Structures are given as C-alpha cells and as structure tokens.
Amino acid sequence: MRMSNEVQLNCGIKIPIIGFGTYSFHNDREKTELAVHMALKMGYRHFDTAKIYGSEPAVGKALTEAIRDGKIKREEVFVTSKLWGSDHHDPVSALKKTLERLGMEYLDMYLVHWPVKLKEWACYPVPKEDDFEQLDLETTWSGMEKCLDLGLCRGIGVSNFSSNKIQRLLDFASVPPAVNQVEMHPMWRQTRLREYCAEEKIHVSAYSPLGGPGNLWGSTAVVDSLILHSIALKHNATPAQVALKWGLSKRSSVIVKSFNQQRMEENMKALDLKLDAQDLLDIEKLEERKIMRGEVYVNETTSPYKSVQDLWDDDI
C-alpha cells in the first residue's frame, strides 16, 4: 500500500487507511488464511483481528508465511487485535497469548474491544447475565499502558467507546488512546464522536463501513441506499465504493470485511474514487440508524449498563 494511504497516529506510528477485517461467523481457518494471502497480493497491509473472532491463528499463519517467503517484511504490515472483556484483569498476559496465537513478537495496535468487563471464564461473544463485573477502566488502561511499555505493541486504543467514556479515560490515562474503532458508515455518521476525537487527536477507525451486510447483526440498508446508488451511477462506481470513500473523506480508516475476491478488489478501488461536495451533502440527508447496538452488554441486573443509552451515552 502506498505511503499516501496511511495516516499518522498520536503515538507516532502510521496506520493504513484501508484495513482487512477477519471476523467471520464460521471462522473457517483455511478460508481466512487464503483470504489474507489474497489481500496481501491486492495491496492490503492492515489486518484486523481479535481474540473473540478466533481468527488470530489464521491471520498469523498467513502473514508469517508471506514474511518467510520474502513477499513482505513484518514492518510493512499493520496488525490490530483486541482485549476481550474476560481479560481486563490482566491485559499483559492476554496480549502475550494473542502474540502466541499470531506467532508474532509484537502487535501494531491493541484495542480494548468494549467498555465491558466480564468474568475470566466468559470467552464467548454473548455474555450470560452472571458473567458481568464492574468495569474498573483505570486498572484496565494501566495494564494496556504496561503492554506498550513492555514493547508488546506499538500503540494502544479503544473500540466501541463513546465520547463520554473517552473523556473519563483521558482523566487518568498517562498515554491517550491512539485509535477508537467504532461502527461508522453513511447511515451512522458519528459526527459528534468524530469531532470530539479530532479535538483529542484520536484517530477514528470505522468497522462495518458498509453496514455489516453478511453479518448476523448487519444490514444491507447502506449498500441498498438509493442515494448511494445514484452517486455510484454518476461516478461509474459501486455503492460500496461510495460508502468507503465517504468514510475515508472524513479522515477515518475503514475496516472492510469480505473474503470474496471481486469485492476485495472493488473495496480497494474506493481509494481512486473522488466524491464531490454535492455527493457529501446528499449523504448527510440519509436517515441515521445504528446497526450494532450492543444489546447483549445491557441488562437491568448485573451489567453496569442498564440501557443501550447507558452504553453509548449521548452518541446514540
């Protein structure tokens, strides 16, 4: 990926603006490995994984093979993984296990996956009612900073954090988060959060930049939008490319997830698309609707979040 397709983070390192997501419901290791090899050939250099996705071993194996075969150097790829809720008590040990699964010596970015702490056994995506613990973000973040101090990662950040939660984190953080990875697309534009993060020099990275079609919780509303279809027709592009270019135009990086060769190539070509001022104004007219609402982290008894509004504060 060309250098112009990277942005500098507040920690001094550069992040490629198009990332390759590796979550898939079936988590087929062989398919994931093949997809990562294919993505490397197409120029993808940012690979996004997480403990809870189960894709770390496949991502690590494919990248290690490519490095061993001289196709890329380790410093030419950017690898992101995430701290799951059951590991908040010890981020250092959790990251060491992630590195073992990846077969790597360091991560480029380590994110707190959700502002949710779970009991140590809750290593599954949908927690049960008695799995929740009270989040002590100061202790969690201290562990994240230790990961950085030990050289286990080059940057630390958060995911699914509202403006208010980042503000509280900054009250005690010695090292501010470099990244906040959140749902963001033309139908969930995150205007308030983006403005706040820009003020604090925190990079916003967009997951589900197409609205998550193909995921159990996702929607085709974004790629089916008549406005995006109209803009795509005008530029001889696809609605997906328009959605991705919109995200890039907001100075965000986008994490795209498709293991389909044609769509992977199409997603990369969003870099070449140019949207004009009218296109951007038309996109602002789209009705907003958050797709990943995080209801599984909300309950009235054991979760610190009694409602979806509690989880997202004023950002929903």
From TrEMBL:
It comes from the Eukaryota. SUPFAM superfamilies: NAD(P)-linked oxidoreductase. InterPro entries: AKR (IPR020471), Aldo/ket_reductase_CS (IPR018170), NAD(P)_OxRdtase_dom_sf (IPR036812), NADP_OxRdtase_dom (IPR023210). Pfam families: Aldo_ket_red (PF00248). Residues 18-287 form the NADP-dependent oxidoreductase domain. This is NADP-dependent oxidoreductase domain-containing protein. It comes from Vitis vinifera.
